[in-house]
Every structure is written in C-alpha cells, then in structure tokens.
Write a structure and sequence with these properties.
Elements lengths: L16 E12 L2 E12 L3 E5 L6 H9 L5 E9 L2 E2 L5 H7 L1 E4 L6 E5 H13 L5 H14 L10 E2 L5 H15 L3 E5 L7 H17 L4 E6 L3 H6 L3 E6 L2 E6 L1 H10 L6
Parallel strand pairs: 3-10, 3-11, 6-9, 9-10
Antiparallel strand pairs: 1-2, 1-4, 4-5, 7-8, 11-12
C-alpha cells in the first residue's frame, strides 16, 4: 500500500508551530536510522508516533533530547522557530523541552523532592529551596493520586513500573515544559496503571493547555485515553503515513504490514 500523499503536518501552521522536525537524518555508529523525518507539533496539540520495533522511534526521542550518541547528518530541529539541532541536552531542558524516558534510571541516595528542586532551579535559573517547592509538589502529588511519602523516596529506587511513569508525569508537571516527548510511557504497564498515567498527563494538560505533546508508542490503548490530534506511522526511519485517531484504529486492525 502506498503512503498517504496528504501533508503530514497539516494540523500546525508555520505560525503556530511549537516544535518542528525538518528532513531529519540520524545515524548511530555510522548506521543510518532516521532517513528524512518531517513532523510539526503546534501549541496544545497531542501527536502520537507509532511504529514497530527497530523503526527508529527511540532514536528520534534521544535525538530530540540531544544525546551525543545520535549523529544528525542532515535536517534540523526547530523549537519556537529557533534551530536547536546543535544544542546540548541541558540547554534544551532549560529552554522547556522535556523527555519522559521509556526506562527511567534509578538514582540511589537522591530523594525525589531533592531531584525536582535541582531540576526546577536549573530550568528557571532560580535557586529554589525544598520548603518553597514542597507545597507545590504535595499539591501535584495529590492531583496525580500519589502518596505524599513518595517525595522522600530515592529517585526510582524500588519503584514499580507504574510508579516510575507517574514520577515522570510529576516531573513534567513541576518543570512546566513547553513541549513533552513521552517515549513509550505505556511500556510495561497494566491497564489500571496505564489509566492512572494517562489521567496524570491529562491533568498536566489541563494546567498547561499550550503544552505540546509527542507521544511515542507501540499500542493504541493509550491513544484511547489521551485522544491525539494527529497520528504518524514511522517505519524504517521514515514517516509513511499521517492522519487522525482513525489511523491508529486502522493500524490496530491491519498491522504494520499494510504500510511496509
């Protein structure tokens, strides 16, 4: 089946574009992975990127974060109209780009609240104290259905899969990014944990309606919870089709072979 000829980025005009990827080619250890990706996310939009294993989804996520292991050989990444292709990871984070990892790392000895204080201080350029943040963090924990003692636990140490993902949503709420890249946030979650995480993302969206979200996933089930504005299918390093939520439903029925 031939790819759709409709414009992939019709949902976000040039003026509304918050985050734009243009003709992005990326290699890992000299092996080409992404082979010309174009994608635009507007303010307040939710985009879902779906694809089989090995299609380049996590490569795209890590490239957007600025990981030095991923070499951009062609194309560029724009954030609010500014070319950030060469920006290091910390500068992107301070500017308002957030990545929720598929496999969040454990950091023994660093409590969640201390980590959030350091991350927010770096993001805002202000040295916040624990006391200044505690009330805000406690309020968000309540909104996200998290136990208040969670803030004093060491970051991701002994956390269940659902707790790790909720902690990522908590970080997204506290750090107030302008665009959030959620790399397989639904990975390893049962249906109840998935619903809790999806509810958390929606809660953050309600607080920050201009937040742009790029959700990278294998499965339609989280899309039923978050209702994306646009769905894109990535196969062999290229976006081969884009459309509305109905595209994900079609994918569920036909599988990726229909686009190979």
């Amino acid at each position: 089946m031939s790819p759709s000829t409709a414009p992939q980025n019709a949902s976000a005009s040039d003026d509304a574009a918050l985050f734009r990827i243009e003709d992005l080619h990326v290699s890992v250890e000299a092996t080409p992975i992404l082979k010309g990706v174009d994608l635009t996310v507007g303010r307040g939009e939710v985009h879902a990127l779906m694809g089989p294993n090995g299609s380049g989804k996590s490569t795209l996520a890590n490239t957007l974060l600025g990981s030095p292991d991923y070499a951009v050989s062609q194309g560029r990444i724009l954030f609010k109209g500014e070319d950030i292709t060469s920006w290091p990871t910390d500068v992107r984070g301070k500017a308002g780009i957030f990545l929720a990892f598929q496999y969040p790392e454990e950091i023994p000895g660093v409590p969640v609240i201390q980590f959030l204080r350091q991350a927010l201080s770096a993001r805002k350029g202000i040295d916040f104290s624990i006391l200044e943040l505690r009330l805000t963090i406690m309020e968000w924990m309540e909104r996200l259905g998290m136990d208040p003692s969670f803030g004093d636990r060491y970051l991701n140490e002994g956390f269940s899969g659902g707790e790790k993902k909720r902690n990522e949503v908590l970080q997204m709420a506290i750090l107030e990014p302008e665009v959030a890249i959620l790399d397989e946030t639904d990975s390893g979650l049962d249906i109840d944990a998935l619903r809790v995480v999806a509810n958390g993302v929606r809660e953050v969206q309600r607080a920050r309606p201009d937040l742009g979200v790029l959700l990278i996933t294998h499965y339609q089930r989280i899309l039923e919870e978050l209702q994306p504005d646009r769905v894109h299918i990535l196969i062999d390093g290229r976006i081969v089709d884009s459309g509305g939520p109905e595209l994900a439903r079609r994918l569920e029925k036909e599988g990726y072979d229909a686009w190979r």
